[in-house]
Amino acid sequence: MAHILALHAHPDDIEILAGGTLALLAAVGHTITIATATAGEGGSAVHDPAGTGRIRQAEADAAAALIGADYRCLGFADLGVFNDDPSRRVVTELIRSVAPDLVITASPVDYHPDHEAISVLVRDACFAAPVANYRTGPAAATATIPALYFMDSIGGRDREGVRIRRHFAVNVATTFATKQAMLAQHQSQADWVARQHGITDHLADMAAWTRRVGRDFSVDYAEGFRQYRHPPYPTVPVLQGLLGELVVVAET
Ligand SMILES: [Zn+2]
Q1: pTM
Q2: What is the pLDDT of residue 197?
Q3: Residue 192 to residues 20, 35, 56, 233: CA-CA distances in angstroms?
């Protein structure tokens, strides 16, 4: 069985972009760790930052528990994720402590600065994880660089509005209900995304997005991914191998 680490910026990002895929992997017995760089403490106009962070971590924990996953928060500040030396060591220590077979993180290009920053941090922390002389804490260096994947950006486009091509998608029709239940745990975000993003129903918006990716791959519901293949990162299709026939490669 494999250990999968999904690491993104804020509580609810992973549920929206990869929740169905993680539910599929969990259902067949793989171990899942869901982690966020921040507690998303900016995501409220009602509660103060500390209170919002506590609420959102509890929501993320409840969402992860639905698929038997662990949830970890790195404790970076919301809108305060930067690609710097201390942050890279924190992310590397997380990867070393989890020792995942593969890592799934944010798109390198996305609408939110925290998404782009955590993507670069994770990419470089995967590289650093097996470098024993790069000291980060008690966790031992990993044996190798883990296989690395990027989720879609929010909306599947770059900052110029150009569509980002995926390498493949995962057919999540059988776990879509679980994905919905995971996102529904993030109750505090229903009002926030209406106010901040003009999204009046975040569950319906996620459903429309997952159907939209499905349309691109001629299935009902899907989530898109790219594998980072630059040497010396592994090019073995680890995630695709775990999912087998649920992987769809022909984007229309
Ligand atoms: Zn986010």
Answers
A1: 0.96
A2: 86
A3: 23, 21, 12, 38
